[in-house]
Amino acid sequence: MAELQEVQITEEKPLLPGQTPEAAKTHSVETPYGSVTFTVYGTPKPKRPAILTYHDVGLNYKSCFQPLFQFADMQEIIQNFVRVHVDAPGMEEGAAVFPLGYQYPSLDQLADMIPCILQYLNFSTIIGVGVGAGAYILSRYALTGLTSSISEMILGHLFSQEELSRNSELIQKYRNIITHAPNLDNIELYWNSYNNRRDLNFERGGDITLKCPVMLVVGDQAPHEDAVVECNSKLDPTQTSFLKMADSGGQPQLTQPGKLTEAFKYFLQGMGYMASSCMTRLSRSRTASLTSAASIDGNRSRSRTLSQSSESGTLSSGPPGHTMEVSC
Ligand code: BEZ
Questions:
Q1: Ligand 1 center from residue 22 Cα (angstroms)
Q2: What residue owns the CA closest to ligand 1's atom 8?
Q3: What order of strands is seen across the sheet that includes strand 323-325?
Q4: Where are the domains of the chain?
Q5: How much distance in Å is there from the Cα of 36 to the middle of ligand 1?
Q6: Does residue 71 line the site of ligand 1, with CB under 6 A?
Q7: In terms of CATH architecture, what is 24-93+104-146?
Q8: With 0-12 CB in 10 A as exposed, 13-18 as middle and 19+ as buried, what is 135?
Q9: Of 14, 94, 215, 244, which sits most exposed with the smallest number of CB within 10 A?
Q10: CA angle (127 as vertex; 123, 128 as ends), nearest 5
Q11: Cα(79) to centroid(ligand 1), Å
Q12: Distances (CA, A) of 41 to 15, 19, 24, 308
């Protein structure tokens, strides 16, 4: 009787002639846990997530995923997606050996590096493909609120994804301040309280709304712009000056202090705290242009309107009809 033997079959179906692998581009980004390298194949497809892979221990993206991603039948799938293949630190081809005593990132920290990669690429959604340790890392990442480092979550609250991916000097400065804050544990407590906040339950015309004058400012590229617009819709329009600031992200006081100062002056003037002669002088003496600086809620029926005409470069404040020139 013939003996049954286990035979291991490696399925081989390489790319067909004419099917060439797409060009790859390798990048490195700095993260709070050191730099990470990843290789991007294909081009981003509108409204589609990226496929992001994470390899197992002892492998890198190529040794782990090349046979799968270059399998002929796989092409009709992956051609519809941009692919981001992450190499765990020090696993990329040609990586230098880490110095003695180097503290390798924990799997949680490796998961926390993923948002930095996505921010760099400006990708917001992914389909994760992980093997072994890579599957653990991607699962950690998918449990986002629990995995993303507190500092990255806070940065995502403070700044828009666009600002974070541009990674300007300001972002680098604030990432550095928050990541290395000696009181990060205290910041986390404040963050937790913020996340457990109660709804303010404002209602326009209802009992619960602010009765005092309010100046509400939001950058037009702020991460929570919609929430601020909604808040404005619930406030008393006769008491509220709403300013949506152009070319501004999550922190207008950092990125547009001049425009904000100007707006604040008019708000104070509307309350009678600054003489209009002083305002005119201050406004005229300023050098920065406010033209195209702000788009304003155009509710003309309000008694307090902080507004700016982008055509004429004029600002009006307080009682309607009081208009000031702004040097542009
Ligand atoms: C890809 O096309 O995504 C790919 C190509 C080579 C190795 C790994 C992935």
A1: 8
A2: 66
A3: 307-309, 314-316, 323-325
A4: 24-93+104-146, 150-181+189-196, 214-271
A5: 18
A6: no
A7: 3-Layer(aba) Sandwich (3.40)
A8: middle
A9: 94
A10: 105
A11: 11
A12: 16, 14, 5, 46
pLDDT in tens, 21-66: 678 999 999 988 899 999 999 999 988 999 999 999 999 999 999 9
DSSP 117-171: HHHHHT---EEEEE-THHHHHHHHHHSHHHHS-HHHHHHHHHS-HHHHHHT-HHH
Q: Is 85 in the pocket of ligand 1 (CB under 6 A)?
A: yes
**Residue of 38, 53, 70 with the most ligand 1 atoms within 8 Å of its CB, for mutation:** 70
- Give whole-number Cα distances, 246 to 129, 260, 313, in Å: 39, 11, 14
Q: Counting runs of H as helices and runs of E as strands, what totals does the chain give?
A: 13, 11
Other C-beta atoms within 10 Å of 176: how many?
A: 12
Q: How far does CA 313 lie from the centroid of its chain?
A: 31
CA 110 to chain centre: 19
Among candidates 204, 236, 297, which has minimal Cα distance to 316?
297
CB-neighbour burial class of residue 213 (10 A; exposed 0-12, middle 13-18, buried 19+) = middle
- For the stretch 177-204, pLDDT in tens is 998 888 988 888 898 898 889 999 888 8
